[in-house]
């Protein structure tokens, strides 16, 4: 209890040192690009210039190329050996216009040539390292790796993933050669001495095996055993070691199931405690295949589930009621002096032929209605449909 109180006091002192103010901080505001799961393996990898071996070890399919055929059955021919911007489609023009200071995704794919697939695991994602330009084409600054696919191709696959991303100038968080490196934040330098500190955490509810936990002597992911006060203490201690004046601390968490809007109450309590007691300014949640309701808590943003942004699920039947073909780009504007949310744009896209195109007005309206209902269950935050994007409303 005394340790918890100390961490809470430390978080308050950090906020006091950065001169906490309300929204509208002018030059202190920072725009981010946050996305949920980006899966560039399997069928996506097969249409890129340097595909991996297509062999997979799933119950129903044995070749990654079959996922292209499934998509083509509903969408028509998909080109092969596409240029690297292809999969991002219309989202690149939106990113270019928004000019976010940092671009952060959950990369749910090992980047490796390893053939050492994890035994007993039904799904394995990998992208050939030579296809790394598919990430740099979108200017990705940081890949979150604390998820249930980064070790799909064994420890050699994880090591090659870390080396390839770092070698390409992309920061990583949430996985490492040992627990200290997995728990260390990715640090993204901004103007005027400000920084983004990105702490990436995994939880077992998303399917991350306890055996994937990094230890003092073994590689793996930063996996919390439970969404508990001990976890808050652990995150708070990590934040206290790194956070300084003008930093924005983000907790990126892979948690929860793939389908459904219902939130585990422990997730919500944990998110609140991260903001109240651990020095975190924004919670970036992912694992759900479709967007979940969001919350603005004490003027800080909680994204419980961003939904997938890129994958090869096109044409796969089941769960159609959740419209997982619709993808949301989150562009929050944060006041770096206070960590508070100033504003947020949420452009909406639709996956078509493994590429993102702007969603139709009727689809944006449908998604706004669904997310408004879910968000208002969490507080006074609502969602409305705008011109090609979702609009956040408070009160």
Structure overview:
The chain contains 10 helices and 21 strands. The chain is α/β, with parallel strands linked by helices and about 400 residues long. The longest helix is centred in the first third of the chain and has 16 residues, at about 1-15.
| Helix fraction bin | 25-40%
Arithmetic mean of pLDDT: 93
Radius of gyration: 20 Å
CATH architecture: 4-Layer Sandwich
Structural shape: globular
Q: In angstroms, what separates the terminal alpha carbons? A: 35 Å
Q: Low-confidence parts lasting 5 or more residues at pLDDT below 50?
A: 1-26
CATH fold name, please?
Purple Acid Phosphatase, chain A, domain 2
Q: What about the largest sheet?
A: 10 strands, mixed
Strand content: 25-35%
How many β-strands, per DSSP? 21
CATH class: Alpha Beta
Tally of individual domains: 1
Question: What's the tally of helices?
Answer: 10
Structural class: alpha/beta
The CATH homologous superfamily name equals Metallo-dependent phosphatases
